[in-house]
Amino acid sequence: MSYNVVVIGATGAVGGEILKILEERNFPVKELRLGATSRSAGKEVVFRGETYRVVETTPEIFDGMDIALFAGGSASKEFARVAAAKGVTVIDNSSAFRLEPDVPLVVPEVNPEDVKWHKGIIANPNCSTIQMVVALKPLHDYGKIKRVVVSTYQAVSGAGIEAIEELKQQVKAYLNGEEAVPSVFPYPIAFNLIPHIDVFQDMYYTKEEWKMVLETQKIMHDPEIKVTATTVRVPVFRSHSESINIETEIKITREKAIELLKKAPGVKVIDNPEEKQYPMPLYASNQDEVFVGRIREDNTIPNGLNLWVVADQLRKGAATNAVQIAELLIKYGCVKQNG
Amino acid sequence: MSYNVVVIGATGAVGGEILKILEERNFPVKELRLGATSRSAGKEVVFRGETYRVVETTPEIFDGMDIALFAGGSASKEFARVAAAKGVTVIDNSSAFRLEPDVPLVVPEVNPEDVKWHKGIIANPNCSTIQMVVALKPLHDYGKIKRVVVSTYQAVSGAGIEAIEELKQQVKAYLNGEEAVPSVFPYPIAFNLIPHIDVFQDMYYTKEEWKMVLETQKIMHDPEIKVTATTVRVPVFRSHSESINIETEIKITREKAIELLKKAPGVKVIDNPEEKQYPMPLYASNQDEVFVGRIREDNTIPNGLNLWVVADQLRKGAATNAVQIAELLIKYGCVKQNG
């Protein structure tokens, strides 16, 4: 069986990855349509050796489609409900619907069953949240996590293709002795850090920081997991890193954590300090696993653990997770066929 | 009154800053001598408009000197005790003596009185520790800090002049489509993060991480402050940043924290999210203050607080702190004059 698939935001950083991953995983695509803003309409994209023309997203693009993959951005608010109303199963990468009670928020390694109760839209979580919950799930199942203190080191590609170009241009400017001119980010990001991602909200935390708190609780089905986050942009092209400190109800030794993480789906443990082996964004890029290392017991509390978690946020943090959700929907028979 | 001063490691990143700061602060230098390894001997350095020739460090360089400023590295182990035995007051920036019971470990804003009991050597703390304790001291005095969870974002200049050059070369190589060849660091640092600073020690923590634990307790005179650290190298030329979560005995609100930090010596509060104002390494460089921002109450525990702390680790984290110690020694009459 194969499906009519429409990708909205097909020309962006996440959209490009979605197409790559649909191809790599041999996703059963029957008809493919590509939507984008009017600015990107007319661009051509190659998928499985065939050239597709990107069109401006309009309600009609969803007619006869089975699955719509939204890469993120403002198109979601405008068109996701429209698509769902036409019977299309929507997987949405924006933050618009993640906390809606009628929308499941799914990481296939963590809460796969949640796709079953969707009402037309399934939300893909924030990139920083996805890699954190994939790493924390096996530890939570064993020792019940009570509190998480997380500091992020987020790559520029989280802010789109223009952000990648901006870092490149600023580095070039620096080497030529010119000034770095920021446009995507509020300040130069080359050779700098910006402790500000998304808008500021309650209690002086950013929206990115609140996402890590609220999305984690929803995905884990545990409103009692307490998360406090500090999110920081770093001059890395791709793959987010996270320094995570957890407190559990039951003690988890380093050895136990390694054992649990090695068995966990989607996780790869890289933790061999003697050989200087630990996860790094340069080597996590273009891979689907969540890499976990620097696993250390934290003896400042009875049941503490420190972890260093790295993943390609365009893949597992966005596109791969979305395609995995689509695969789950098919597996569970939760996609209505309209084509 | 002026003093005979010898700077050991005068041609390195920290040594160069020491000379700049002695000049800036109009330190009362009578005679100046500059020592380095044999490799750097013969180099010329300008101080207050006069040219000085750097010589290879030998025991004789300390004869007749009053104050010796060691920039760090292996020279400290070889020569600091030798200098002290000759009656020279040594301020040492290496990690060799920091935890010795007969050596005060001093941050002038935190424990100035400790210089008084020196027995020839005063140790300058680790850069990451200095900026953390300057920011935490006023909060500790008010609310008693019980636990600190810190993740660092450390600039390459912490690893010396060669590391600055290495980042530049790797960025250039990247733009030219060439491979980045690491030499100072175990992996490429351009567009990457390396969660490994200094050697691995007990419990899989690095020496850099243990320094933040043990030095903080010694400087604060409080073995009960519990610190857990994750230290990470980032592709920033200069100034270290730290994401710090603290738990206190007495509740500190955001407003109280700002009030305490604004009054604290050596601290500058930059915390105005509406105007996108927060500390960043690019703007902290070449300054002496410790910049504190992103001050947020952490409600996952009764008395929690998150902070983002940035400082120029070559200045306040090393050279400025060392020269401030020398000034304190003079103020307290704790320097023997040999010249």
TrEMBL record, chains A, B:
Residues holding substrate: 154, 233
Family: Belongs to the aspartate-semialdehyde dehydrogenase family.
Family annotation (HAMAP family): ASADH (MF_02121)
Catalytic residue positions: 127 (acyl-thioester intermediate), 240 (proton acceptor)
Catalyses which reaction(s): L-aspartate 4-semialdehyde + phosphate + NADP(+) = 4-phospho-L-aspartate + NADPH + H(+)
Function: Catalyzes the NADPH-dependent formation of L-aspartate-semialdehyde (L-ASA) by the reductive dephosphorylation of L-aspartyl-4-phosphate.
Domain Semialdehyde dehydrogenase NAD-binding: 4-118
Residues reported in the UniProt entry to bind NADP(+): 11-14, 39-40, 157-158, 313
UniProt gene name: asd
Chain residues that bind phosphate: 98
InterPro entries in the record: Asp_semialdehyde_DH (IPR012080), Asp_semialdehyde_DH_beta (IPR005986), NAD(P)-bd_dom_sf (IPR036291), Semialdehyde_DH_NAD-bd (IPR000534), Semialdhyde_DH_dimer_dom (IPR012280)
Pfam family, one: Semialdhyde_dhC
GO molecular-function terms, A-Z: aspartate-semialdehyde dehydrogenase activity; NAD binding; NADP binding; protein dimerization activity
BP-aspect Gene Ontology terms: 'de novo' L-methionine biosynthetic process; diaminopimelate biosynthetic process; isoleucine biosynthetic process; lysine biosynthetic process via diaminopimelate; threonine biosynthetic process
Family matches, as Gene3D superfamilies: Dihydrodipicolinate Reductase, domain 2 (3.30.360.10), NAD(P)-binding Rossmann-like Domain (3.40.50.720)
UniProtKB keywords: Amino-acid biosynthesis, Diaminopimelate biosynthesis, Lysine biosynthesis, Methionine biosynthesis, NADP, Oxidoreductase, Threonine biosynthesis
EC annotation from Swiss-Prot or TrEMBL: 1.2.1.11
Annotated protein name in UniProt: Aspartate-semialdehyde dehydrogenase
Organism: Carboxydothermus islandicus
Subunit (UniProt): Homodimer.
CDD domains found in the cross-reference section: ASADH_C_bac_euk_like, VcASADH2_like_N
Pathway it works in: Amino-acid biosynthesis; L-lysine biosynthesis via DAP pathway; (S)-tetrahydrodipicolinate from L-aspartate: step 2/4; Amino-acid biosynthesis; L-methionine biosynthesis via de novo pathway; L-homoserine from L-aspartate: step 2/3; Amino-acid biosynthesis; L-threonine biosynthesis; L-threonine from L-aspartate: step 2/5
